[in-house]
Amino acid sequence: MDLTLKVWRQKSANSTGAFETYSVKDVSKGSSFLEMLDTLSEDLVEKGKEPVAFDHDCREGICGSCSMTINGIPHGPEKATTACQLHMRHFHDGQTITIEPWRAKPFPVIKDLVVDRSPFDRIIQSGGFITSRAGSAVDANAIPISKATADYAMDAAACIGCGACVASCKNASAMLFTAAKAGHLNLLPQGQAEKDKRVLSMVSAMDPFVVTSMVVPAPPAVIAYHRCTTCGSWVMLMMTLTRLFAICRFSACFLVSTIGTFSAILVAKSYKSL
Fold first, then answer.
1. pTM summary value
2. Residue 259's beta-bridge partner residues?
3. In the 3-class helix/strand/coil scheme, how is the chain assigned residue by residue?
4. Nearest Cα to 202, choosing from 189, 223, 222, 183?
5. What domains lie within the chain, and their CATH numbers?
6. Please, are residues 262 and 169 in contact by the beta-carbon 8 Å criterion?
7. Contact by Cβ (8 Å): 255, 271
8. What 8-state DSSP symbol labels residue 205?
9. What is the pLDDT along the chain (274 residues), one digit of tens a residue?
């Protein structure tokens, strides 16, 4: 099939970008979206032009590198499908496809469709780790974990860190990513040692990418206690200069976060302490 592509071209982060229109012919419906872009780049190289720069790695929907917006939708029209796993059979002959990078301030454009997703790395660096003994690894089944808990943790760990949640959010918020990474570690026994510190550190690391102008957050201070609506245990209310936290130490509860008038609930379920 033949397609018309409107691709965002931008030489560098400091240059002005614009859409350029290309025609791609004889595209196989069995090819992936990135393979179609490969075909376009080959045509451009043969014509002595610069190929379209786009990020990719595994091409299996795992690494999250293929961060691009297709017809205004991050990763394209198919639900729960990354751009690399999107196939051309979902488009029709003669269709015009608009391709652009993530449109989010935390992810500045490096070149063409490539964006800088290093803010996610800094969020992970702030608390995406566990305490573990040095030496030989412990057997995987040495610590008994209920299936329900393992399923919850696996659901959160399914996040591949692609940044589509930030690109989709009108506030360019990374709350879904932060909640997923904090949640899957907080649920399991191995992550209990840093449970409270992890949530506070990761949310504090997320703040500068959501709030454009903010002062350095002060250390959190406990200002009150109230009953947890889920398990009935007492919950600490903690506040920084930009956020109000409600953290339940003992059961599967929620971290409530507020930025000005924008509120959201981060699912940060914690494995019940014995």
1. 0.74
2. 262
3. CCEEEEEEECCCCCCCCEEEEEEECCCCCCCEHHHHHHHHHHHHHHCCCCCCCCCCCCCCCCCCCCCCEECCEECCCCCCCCHHHCEHHHCCCCCEEEEECCCCCCCCEEECCEECCHHHHHHHHHHCCCCCCCCCCCCCCCCCCCHHHHHHHHHHHCCCCCCHHHHHCCCCCCHHHHHHHHHHHHHCHHHCCCHHHHHHHHHHHHHHHHCCCCCCCCCCEEEEEEECCCCCCEEEEEECCCCEEEECCCCCCCEEEEECCEEEEECCCCCCCC
4. 183
5. 3-115 (3.10.20.30), 118-129+144-266 (no CATH)
6. no
7. no
8. H
9. 999 999 999 999 889 999 999 999 999 999 999 999 999 999 999 999 999 999 999 999 999 999 899 999 999 999 989 999 999 999 999 999 999 999 888 899 999 999 999 999 999 999 988 887 777 767 777 888 899 988 988 998 999 999 999 999 888 888 889 989 988 888 888 888 888 888 888 888 888 776 543 333 444 444 444 455 445 554 444 444 344 444 444 333 434 333 332 333 333 333 333 2
And the tokens for 216? 């350095």
What are 263's two structure tokens? 């509120």
